[in-house]
Design a protein that fits this description.
- The structure is a single chain.
- It is built from four helices and nine strands.
- The chain is α+β, with helices and mostly antiparallel strands.
- The chain has one domain: OB fold (Dihydrolipoamide Acetyltransferase, E2P), CATH 2.40.50.
- A hairpin with a 3-residue loop joins strand 6 and strand 7.
- It is globular, with a radius of gyration of 13 Å.
- It starts with 6 loop residues before the first strand and ends with a helix.
């Protein structure tokens, strides 16, 4: 995945919508802020996600953080490899480290999210 072509939520999740399916992940910026990841909790296939609502958690040595759905829809695939080895997320957040795939209710919802330039501006201005 090319990070410059993705859309981003204010809570640092990225989304790539093709057709009616969205791949959702966590930005490299967010992963770097969490530092050493310990575990991740993801939804099950068939779960319904609502944009802006929590769908799981990622735990690091620093904290436990909710993961938020950038778009609404039904989970059609979960990255089981992450449950087995959360370090994949640290190593490759834009490819092997994707979180879930969602059959989106409205593919246009992703267009409401930040593009890469807007996201870069946001994280540059955030307090870290």
């Amino acid at each position: 995945m090319d990070p410059k072509k993705l859309r981003y939520s204010p809570t640092h999740e990225w989304v790539d919508v093709e057709g009616g399916t969205a791949v959702v992940g966590l930005s490299k910026f967010a992963v770097d802020q969490l530092t050493d990841l310990l575990t991740i909790e993801l939804p099950k296939v068939g779960d319904r996600l609502t944009a802006g609502k929590s769908f799981g958690e990622v735990e690091s040595v620093k904290s436990v953080n909710d993961l938020y759905a950038p778009v609404s829809g039904e989970v059609v695939e979960v990255n089981q490899a992450l449950a087995d080895d959360v370090q994949i997320l640290s190593e490759d957040p834009y490819a092997k480290g994707w979180l879930v795939k969602i059959k989106v209710d409205d593919p246009a919802d992703a267009e409401k999210l930040m593009d890469h330039t807007a996201y870069e501006t946001k994280i540059a201005s955030d307090d870290h």
